[in-house]
């Protein structure tokens, strides 16, 4: 594996809320290599977004406590000075946010918003920044970039706005691109275009990508590795093939089981009911003592489930790890071969 | 944009006609005979009839309105019952004093409200925020005449730094103009500023929570730039609205403050004409107030479309 762009170790985020301290991220560790795409999946409230906002110091400092280590090309983001962090935002890490309708400033032209990103990191001349803005718009495939640069966000469609946001994120050729539910608000055809765009840009620039989503279809299309989050913890990670084809954690199996399969029909021609994972995630203010998934788990095969947190261990033992050195790990007491395994 | 402007001017004209009808009608309902009041206690029936005819008050009401409105369009608002001077001249004489006080007050108000409201929003529930809340509650609830009297007692009485009232035109005595302006401008400015502070705080707070501010931060922009360009620019819209309302209120005469400081503005004129049942002057003053409101609202609406490109399209 190439030199990692990002190394996150034991990341923890606590948020102070009126109902007590919310443990939103609880010891998350992962790495992203150069040109690699890591997908972070999980349902709403699993701590996906918070875990990446914490990296860039974008959580409200009055209520959020972030601990652990997050080294971007060897430099810890969590301990660096505010000023240095400002310098890293952009050239170090570019970010694409979920909702293209609200992520752009409605009263400024997109050209200005792009030029700002360029000028925040060195380029001082307005004319040169504008030229760069036009180039960036061309690169992300916005039609007629010379005129589009003077448009306001409300004059563009959702897909076009998301392209602009990607252009902003890429303005300073970041080493790492974080896409936080970047395609969730878009319709499927536009989604595919955006994914293709990021894929191409990643190939051209060798950018490492963290792609946060709850859409497993997107994961299969873009990711090299997958990290499944639940209750602020990583419950399973591995290559796309391992996690999607041979899921080891009951939660991952539940997620995959909840995917609609239109090809599968019952005898009378009706499509079967969609499978769901019953229950809701535990509130981050009151996490269970043992396995975070225990209260909803259909298996519960081990007495330790209720009392002891399972470590993130290799699935099936080290011998089964594939030759490329990417381990498949899951945090569960339940192991294949167990007769209670469903 | 041109169509938008035309439509808004048209709407303003309709409102102005409505206001003129209401003003005219209301004054018909006010008890008291203005002719009798103008003539004093001893007069003959002939004098009374002559004045009645000259003032047009013997005509049917509708006729009176048409005549008055027609003349008003040409800038002739009639003559004062009391002094016999043209109303237009009386009103225009008072205009500079009123304009001066209104704009000075709004300046004071904005100088208080924008920094204080922004600081409060940046540090909600901090000492600054709580202090600002208490101060603005104080400014809103303390009666302006009381604040005026206290300020006069301190700065004109005890300290003797500033005159207690009056007005001199800027062109005659710039220093005296400024000295006389300070106290009334502070009193009305504090009241307006207290209201505006609350608006600035809530709108900055709202914008700070919007996604695009996070985008700007993620670009690596300096905090000062994010605040100036992204936050304040968006928070400007509600600020312009409330400032417009406050300015219109100040321009239509802050009667009590004008009286305490012997400030010869429109509010004072309106009050005097009510006391004297000087219908033409009162009509003229109220009509001017309405006009001021409409013009300011029009300017505010046009400013909207400059500040927010989404509005001009609607």
Provide the descriptors you would attach to this structure in a database record.
heterodimer; A: 342 residues; alpha/beta; 2 domains; eight-stranded mixed β-sheet; four-stranded antiparallel β-sheet; 10 helices; 28% helix; 22% strand; B: 314 residues; mainly alpha; MetI-like fold
* Structural class by secondary-structure content of chain A: alpha/beta
Amino-to-carboxy terminus distance of chain B: 10 Å
Which CATH class of the largest domain in chain A applies here?
Answer: Alpha Beta
Rg on CA atoms of chain B, Å: 24 Å
In the residues of chain B, how many domains can be counted?
A: 2
Q: In CATH's first tier, which class of the largest domain in chain B applies?
A: Mainly Alpha
Structural class of chain B: mainly alpha
> Could you tell me the number of beta strands of chain B?
0
Uncertain segments of chain A are 338-342
Our estimate of the beta-strand percent of chain A is 15-25%
- Overall pLDDT of chain B, averaged? 85
Query: What is the makeup of the main sheet of chain A?
Result: 8 strands, mixed
Q: Helicity of chain A, in percent?
A: 25-40%
Give the number of DSSP strands of chain A: 12
Briefly characterize the structure:
The complex is a heterodimer of chains A (342) and B (314). Chain A is α/β, with parallel strands linked by helices.
Describe the structure.
The complex is a heterodimer of chains A (342) and B (314). Chain A has 342 residues and is an alpha/beta fold. Chain A has two domains: 4-223, P-loop containing nucleotide triphosphate hydrolases (Rossmann fold, 3-Layer(aba) Sandwich); 230-330, no CATH class. Chain A is 28% helix and 22% strand. Chain A has ten helices and twelve strands. Chain A is globular and about 65 Å long. Residues 338-342 of chain A have low confidence and may be disordered. Chain B has 314 residues and is mainly alpha-helical. Chain B folds into two domains: 2-87, no CATH class; 90-307, MetI-like (MetI-like fold, Orthogonal Bundle), CATH 1.10.3720.10. Chain B has 13 helices and no strands. Chain B has helices spanning 2-29, 34-39, 45-55, 61-73, 87-122, 127-141, 144-158, 174-208, 211-218, 223-251, 255-260, 266-275, 279-307. Chain B is globular and about 85 Å long. The A-B interface holds A 56, 58, 86-91, 93-95, 97, 99, 102-108, 113, 116-117, 120-121, 152, 154, 165, 168-169, 171-172 and B 210-212, 214-222, 225, 229-230, 233-234, 307-310, 313.
């Amino acid at each position: 594996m190439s030199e990692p762009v990002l190394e996150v170790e034991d990341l923890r985020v606590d948020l102070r809320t009126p109902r007590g301290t919310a443990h939103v991220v609880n010891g998350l560790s992962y790495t992203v290599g150069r040109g690699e795409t890591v997908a972070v999946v999980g349902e709403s409230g699993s701590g996906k977004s918070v875990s990446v906002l914490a990296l860039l110091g974008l959580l409200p400092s009055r209520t959020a406590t972030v601990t652990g280590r997050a080294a971007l090309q060897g430099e810890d983001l969590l301990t660096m000075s505010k000023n240095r962090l400002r310098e890293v935002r952009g050239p170090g890490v570019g970010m694409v946010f979920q909702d293209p309708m609200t992520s752009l400033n409605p009263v400024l032209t997109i050209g200005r918003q792009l030029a700002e990103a360029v000028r925040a990191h060195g380029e001082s001349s307005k004319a040169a920044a504008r030229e760069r803005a036009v180039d960036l718009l061309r690169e992300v495939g916005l039609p007629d970039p010379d005129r589009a640069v003077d448009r306001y966000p409300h004059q563009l469609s959702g897909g076009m706005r998301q392209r602009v946001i990607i252009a902003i994120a890429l303005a300073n050729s970041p080493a790492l691109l974080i896409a936080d539910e970047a395609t969730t608000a878009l319709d499927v055809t536009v989604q595919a275009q955006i994914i293709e765009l990021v894929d191409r840009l990643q190939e051209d620039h060798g950018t490492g990508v963290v792609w946060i989503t709850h859409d497993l279809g997107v994961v299969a299309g873009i990711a090299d590795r997958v990290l499944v989050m639940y209750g602020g913890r990583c419950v399973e990670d591995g290559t796309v093939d391992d996690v999607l084809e041979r899921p080891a954690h009951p939660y991952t199996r539940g997620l995959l089981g909840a995917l609609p399969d239109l090809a599968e029909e019952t005898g009378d021609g009706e499509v079967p009911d969609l499978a769901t994972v019953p229950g809701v995630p535990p509130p981050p203010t009151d996490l269970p003592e043992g396995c975070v998934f225990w209260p909803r788990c259909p298996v519960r095969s081990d007495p330790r489930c209720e009392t002891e947190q399972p470590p993130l261990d290799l699935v099936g033992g080290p011998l089964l790890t594939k030759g490329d050195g990417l381990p498949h790990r899951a945090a569960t007491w339940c192991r294949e071969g167990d007769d209670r395994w469903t | 944009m041109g169509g938008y402007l035309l439509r808004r001017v048209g709407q303003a004209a309709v409102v102005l006609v409505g206001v003129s009808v209401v003003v005219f009608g209301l004054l018909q309902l006010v008890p008291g005979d203005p002719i009798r009041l103008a003539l004093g206690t001893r007069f003959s029936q002939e004098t009374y009839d002559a004045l009645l005819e000259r003032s047009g008050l013997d005509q049917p009401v509708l006729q009176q309105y048409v005549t008055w409105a027609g003349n008003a369009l040409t800038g002739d608002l009639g003559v004062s019952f009391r002094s016999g001077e043209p109303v237009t001249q009386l009103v225009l004489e008072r205009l500079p004093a009123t304009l001066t006080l209104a704009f000075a007050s709004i300046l004071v108000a904005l100088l208080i409200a924008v920094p204080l409201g922004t600081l409060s929003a940046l540090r909600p529930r901090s000492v600054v925020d709580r202090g600002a809340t208490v101060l603005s509650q104080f400014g809103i609830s303390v009666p302006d005449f009381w604040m005026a009297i206290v300020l006069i007692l301190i700065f004109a009485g005890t300290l003797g730094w500033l005159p207690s009232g009056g007005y001199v035109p800027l062109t005659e005595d710039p220093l005296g103009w400024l000295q006389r302006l300070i106290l009334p401008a502070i009193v009305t400015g504090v009241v307006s500023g207290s209201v505006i502070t609350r608006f600035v705080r809530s709108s900055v707070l709202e914008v700070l929570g919007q996604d695009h501010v996070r985008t700007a931060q993620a670009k690596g922009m300096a905090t000062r730039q994010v605040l100036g360009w992204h936050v304040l620019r968006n928070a400007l819209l509600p600020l312009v609205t409330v400032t417009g309302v406050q300015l219109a209120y100040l321009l239509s005469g802050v009667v009590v403050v004008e009286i305490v400081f012997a400030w010869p503005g429109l509010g004072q004129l309106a009050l005097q004409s009510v006391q004297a049942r000087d219908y033409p002057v009162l009509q003229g003053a109220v009509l001017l107030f309405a006009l001021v409101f409409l013009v300011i609202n029009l300017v505010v609406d046009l400013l909207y479309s400059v500040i927010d490109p989404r509005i001009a399209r609607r």
